[in-house]
Fold this sequence. Notes:
Number of domains: 2
CATH topology of the largest domain: TIM Barrel
Number of strands: 18
Strand order of the largest sheet: 1-2-8-6-7-5-3-4
Radius of gyration: 25 Å
Distance between the termini: 27 Å
CATH class of the largest domain: Alpha Beta
Structural class: alpha/beta
Strand content: 15-25%
Largest sheet: 8 strands, mixed
Bound molecules: ligand TNX
Number of helices: 16
CATH architecture of the largest domain: Alpha-Beta Barrel
Shape: elongated
Amino acid sequence: MSTLGISSPTPDPTTADAAVLHPHEPEAGDLAALAARTAGDDLLAPPVRLDDVVPAPELLEADPGTTFVLTGDTAIRVTTHPGAREVADHLAELLRPATGLPLPVADALAVDPAGPMTLTLAGTTPPPVTTGGSADLGAEGYRLDVSGSGVRVVAETTTGLFYGVQTLRQLLPAAVESPTPVAARWALPGGTILDRPRFPYRGAMLDVARHFFAVEDVLRVVDHLARYKLNHLHLHLTDDQGWRIAVDSWPRLATVGGASEVGDGPGGHYTKDDYRRIVAYASARHVTLVPEIDLPGHTNAALVAYPELAPDKVAPPPYTGTEVGFSYVDPADERTYDFVTDVLGEVAALTPGPWLHIGGDEAYKVKGEVYTGFVERAQRIVADTGKTVVGWHQLAPAAHVDGRVLQWWGTDTADPATADAVRRGARLIVSPGNHAYLDMKYAEDTPIGHDWAGLIDVRRAYDWDPGTHVTDVPTTAVLGVEAPLWTESVTSLADIEFLLLPRLPAIAELGWSPRTTHDWARFRERLAGHGPRWSTAGITFHRSPEVPWPATPTIPGQRPAAKSDTAER
Ligand code: TNX
């Protein structure tokens, strides 16, 4: 690519790009191109290509002749600003374990160190001249330049800087993911990336109710989100099988309602400090928490703790199965609305982000006007907390409240009630069960997961368009995309990662990348390079046969032996 245009989804192997060592199986053309170059050139080629980034950047221009290599002299310089400094420290912490380099973080005003990496907040420093097109990087965009003398990330916000850093990380060899020092040449490919997201909401959901997961597991999921520029973590905190968040005014919700899960496990719940820890960790990674209290159905655990909320005022036994749709809080009892007000008030107070999710799905025993009436009261209660209400698309028939967001989880593409709610002002988060549900099996023989919405291989997760998916909903009403992970069959962090990877990056790309970059053939190649990253970092993933994974490296972070590779070591 010679101009800073939309990144070509299918690069022509005869162009200069092909001379850059490709991290996957070399094609005959690559070998010929390599043979035509000097040995010195081969040694200098970085192992990652600029256009291998996931999610695909909006614009990129490779400079195949140029490489920047991190050395013991490389320092990170950053605009004097606490948020920018935090991003610079994050970058240093990402790179130090594998590289073993000191990578000191210095104020931008400090003496210019050799071989700098610079993070600049535009607005405090003049923005760079941009080539061909808008310089408006917006709330999350960034510009990344890799030249022979340095790496520069410029953004208008600290979030933009953070995403520039995530891209920078992907441009280094997979060995950078090693938790311990590795001898490698820390080369980045030369060129420029100008990047910003297609949709403002890009998320994943973790169901911590069906099975409870420790705070550490949730933090690790946040890391996976941040790596692929996803900016929302939706926590499904309550369901029939367990209530997972401490509520001071109704303490038995967590202590009694939290003491169960699917199967025989002990369950558990997050204390308010646990939740604050998740919020802080997520916020440092530019991820906003979206807490869900599922109402009026999916409430058996609450009824076990407080039978006064049950329609018959009798405590049901704890539920550890996987059926849905049988439980509900009594919509005819005013005490229920005290409960809703207290719980949503406390959760809102704990949550810095703008969203509060009230569920609303599968309340099969609360029908028609009774259901709509309940939802309308719950929506007003959310509004009174100052938050914006989010709910599954079953909320659609209820009256509109300002900012209301519906989360589409259908498996078809048409729903007149949802389209009507959008006409009345609702926005949509799109999570189609048959494309975005991470609890669906990849294939018949996938050992865990469901198949009620079909099998979802990586291509199925990738090949759809959130902007046009739901009939009669304009792209402008689509806030973004989310990949939910329900955990009826998921019992460990390894299970979570197995279902997340490699489909999460597919959904992330749908949320971030411009549609013009959408190309399955190129996506699977770009994705392949992430397998060695995950292996090196000790992250479990599904070796989907659709993706041309490189053979397992013998030394962590190093690429498998192939003729074209030997020159690089
Ligand atoms: C449907 S999707 C549910 C969940 C289940 C999931 C299993 C939605 C809003 N409700 O209660 O866990 O299917 O795939």
